[in-house]
Amino acid sequence: MPKKPLFYLSPNDTLSELSDTYFPPYITLAHTFNAPAGWGIYNRVLKQFQLQYVLNGSAQYTIEGKPYLTRKGDLIFHRPGERHSVTTIPGEPYVCLSLVFHFGQIAFPLDDLVSTTNYLGNFASHDIERKLTSLVVHYRQPGLVHQLHAQTLLMEILLIFNSLAGERSVQEATAVQRNNFSRLVLAKNYIIEHFAEEVKIKDLEKITGFSCDYLIVQFKLTFGMTPIQYQIHLRVEKAKELAVHEGLTPSEVAERVGYSDIHTFGKMFKKKTGTSLSQFCATLFTEDFGPEE
Predict the structure, then answer these.
(1) Cβ contacts of residue 144 below 8 Å, gap of 6+?
(2) Containing domain of residue 29, as a range?
(3) Which UniProt keywords apply (predicted)?
């Protein structure tokens, strides 16, 4: 009895069968397919991720009951457990590129890189199309170097998705942010002036006229962090400045940046910088030369 194809298996069941692959992402299928007339897949459920790219023609794709009429350049993405069907359209060709992959036992946060929708867009003549095609070429050749190329290309493709999603988000947010920017700057300036005090969101709500949730979202879109994260950032930078230029003790620094408890300050500083304040200072001054004679 022939073995079941790898892309049908649970992720962990594929690992022993993969050659020259030692770390994720694990690619279990990468090929181009020219569908015969009347071809179709019905209500299939995979345990891995799949990208399906239309190289030529068109097909009807359905994922969890939602239909997508895919044409040349369209890219579909579905996750483990999502029921899907693909059928050709009478009189039209369908040539696609299929890529199935997983991350083994690692709980990789793929939704942070790829849109939560199933239709990712049209990429005809885009760099993504070239990378997908090159990935298939490398995957189908034996040897470690080709497998590494295929895995690298897959991660590059996922990063491009993230970049494109970010560009769309910025474009959509620009008009709103333009109207809100002046009020957000007022909130930012308030945090700067009161960074060593307890800055409350309700104070920022009064300054901007925004609701709590809207304020946090818009502040992060504009400045890259939430108001509280920004305040902590200011405290860390001010702590560095005080320790280096004024020679204060950690306890004195903690008090100056708004912490009455040195242990709370120490935990915060190490979490944000990866080192203690004393260790940070030690990396800046390697020798004590003393006064010149």
Answers:
(1) 20
(2) 6-165
(3) DNA-binding, Transcription, Transcription regulation
